[in-house]
Amino acid sequence: MGYNSLKGVHVVLPTGFVARMKSPAQLVVFVILAAIIFLMILAVFSQSRSYLIEANTGAASIIFGDGANEWSLPDSVMCVSAEVPTIADKGENKPCNVMQRKQGDRREIIVDWESNTEVRLTVHSVDGLRIETISSEQKFPPQGSVIIVPKDAWTTAGALTFRAIVTLGDDMRTGVQQYLKGGRWEARDAGLATGLLRKTTEVVKSGELSTGAKVRVLVYDQPARTVRAAQTYGHLLPTAAYDSMSITLVSELGDTFLSVRHFGVAEAVTLKPDWIDIAISSSLFLTATIMLTILGAAVQIASQLGSKRGTQEVGQRSENTDNRKD
After folding, report:
1. How is 235-266 classified by DSSP, letter by letter?
2. For the whole model, what pTM was predicted?
3. Which helix (H) or strand (E) holds 34?
């Protein structure tokens, strides 16, 4: 993915500014300052970053994208919507609720999630992992259905991978049991300030995710600067206590930022690195600044030595002239 354009950034100098430099040392210092400012501009305008998130959560929403989103769910149960409440004897309809009908016995369920299918994942103390299809155009599983993966089967399912738009956690409210337990995030920059000379990413900012937050990665689309949800790549696993999911995801590259909503706060908080974070974490920026500073100091010292030597020579000539007159 390319970097954002620097088109439209102009530096205008007064007429004759460079010509009025009194010494080569001043010119070198000016060039050094201009180079440092140029690197700062790179840090600000060439934003191409990705977010890494590792979190434990009892709830997550996924809108699948294009790609390999096939899940193998061993020894699971399919519950579909019932037209009338199901009142089964001897618990034959369990673990489905009265507004659902159990479709077949426990079996391996293989689902190839189609693009734009939205599911909600929740972890329950009794049922294990519940996968509810919120919105879908695919025939299987149908919209409104729920796949239940019991705890004993979830251990053998392994990692479930995805390419999707992901929202971690849920809105907090009294009595809620499925919420974000905690986690961490990293912003990894791959812009010109970090990757001008080599293809690399550097961690420019990081932080913790608080309990009960609702988190997703957003991105500014260029050039209109419209905001959309970012595509992510990742996987989910059960935690050791089977009370939540362990989700790891990496977002697409771009002008991305983290949107975090907390209970009681009207608007989501935006978490993203600024140019200072990028500058102090960029090895290119730091190396160039140190080298330019050393060069500037060396030129300044050489200029002072040359000026001192010239003064001494002028004084010597004046003394010689006075001696000849005598």
Report:
1. EEEE-TTSSSEEEEEEEPSBEEEEEEE-TT-S
2. 0.75
3. helix 24-45
